[in-house]
Amino acid sequence: MTAFYHVCFAVPDLERAMLDFTRSAGVEWSDPLSDRLGEWDYRIVFTTGGPPFIELIEGPPGSPWDASAGARFDHLGFWSSDVRQGSRRLEEAGLPVDFSGCPHGRPFVYHRVDSIGARVELVDAGRQAAFLGRWHPDGEAMPAIDETARE
Questions:
Q1: 148 alpha-carbon distance from chain centroid
Q2: pLDDT tens for each residue of the chain, 151 residues long
């Protein structure tokens, strides 16, 4: 079992992307959520049914989820036992930080992976219960990358 739990697309129109995914793949969606991180208001939604999830984010120009040039594959999401330690590990492996939610009180970080043209997101496993409560209430705990085992 792997700590991978979602794939994300940054989109300029959340409802259109949801509809297109439903028509093309038959997926079902949770209700979208509006939120704010730093100076950016954004909207987010996840598929129902359990991991792996599809995530869609609609963010404003200049935000980490800017899709003003068109929809794009944004990142692969993984749970991490320790986001800061995991982020150091990725930086040491040559994958630079692209954006960190940590200074905004959100324990996640995006790292650029140029070889795949996207980012990898590490999310602190301490947020998993809140994630499950919002997006997959009957879901079981998911595994996380054990950062202590990688020292």
A1: 22
A2: 589 999 999 999 999 999 999 999 999 999 999 999 999 999 999 999 989 999 999 999 999 999 999 999 999 999 999 999 999 999 999 999 999 999 999 999 999 999 999 999 999 999 999 999 999 999 999 999 999 876 5
Report the alpha-carbon angle 95-99-104, nearest 5. Answer: 140
How far is Cα 32 from Cα 17, in angstroms, rounded to an integer? 12
Strands (E), the chain: 4-10, 33-37, 40-46, 53-58, 72-80, 97-100, 108-113, 118-124
Q: Is 0.85 surpassed by the pTM of this model?
A: yes
As given in the structure block, the two tokens for residue 147 are: 């950062």
Domains and CATH numbers, the chain: 4-150 (3.10.180.10)
Distance between CA atoms of 97 and 88, rounded to whole angstroms? 9
